[in-house]
Hints:
- Belongs to the PanB family.
- Catalyzes the reversible reaction in which hydroxymethyl group from 5,10-methylenetetrahydrofolate is transferred onto alpha-ketoisovalerate to form ketopantoate.
- There is one protein chain.
- By secondary structure, the chain is α/β, with parallel strands linked by helices.
- It has helices at 12-21, 33-41, 53-56, 68-79, 99-112, 125-134, 150-153, 163-178, 190-199, 220-223, 239-242, and strands spanning 25-29, 46-49, 86-90, 116-120, 139-144, 182-186, 204-207, 215-218.
- It has eleven helices and eight strands.
- The radius of gyration is 16 Å and the shape is globular.
- The two termini are 21 Å apart.
- 48% of the residues are buried.
- The model has no long low-confidence stretch (mean pLDDT 90).
Amino acid sequence: xxxxxxxxxxxxxxxxxxxxxxxxxxxxxxxxxxxxxxxxxxxxxxxxxxxxxxxxxxxxxxxxxxxxxxxxxxxxxxxxxxxxxxxxxxxxxxxxxxxxxxxxxxxxxxxxxxxxxxxxxxxxxxxxxxxxxxxxxxxxxxxxxxxxxxxxxxxxxxxxxxxxxxxxxxxxxxxxxxxxxxxxxxxxxxxxxxxxxxxxxxxxxxxxxxxxxxxxxxxxxxxxxxxxxxxxxxxxxxxxxxxxx
Length: 245
């Protein structure tokens, strides 16, 4: 865990400071108070209430059925348990289709206890990011394999190979220019993720993107080897099994 673990609670400005000081960030998903409290007291820096709850908690095949109401419920439960970790919550599928819809959903999430909202993609989402940041809502961008685009991608596949890697670099800079304070890179080739991390002024959080990112995030069910009915990604270790549990 980071050296910030024994100090004051994490804030959005502290993320940029961690980047400048070369401190690696630890992020895990949580969907209820008990796991959130366990992660918080053990020094996890950021907690993500991800729309991955649709798959690992609700049993869906994708994140698409998750609603804003679902996200608000789980965000509130997690927020009650945290003392120091920064709480990030996903905007659910199509909640960010327009700036106005995104503002409504993000407002509900912040009122539930989130301190930052995560938005998948770039392109027209740049307008959404700017709109929220201008209204004092911190934003985390999610690039690479964006699960809400699974139908367009034709499955959960590595993104950013070949020429697509250069577009990913441009997108990463664009979301930061739009105001994102954090960038998640999912299933991106290690060299591209490392290059993006070196180029950006804000921290990157990798998931299946190699060690060159400024931090790492895992879905807690994958990390603990819990059978949630979906295949665990190849890059995830079963920490309970390796620990003899």
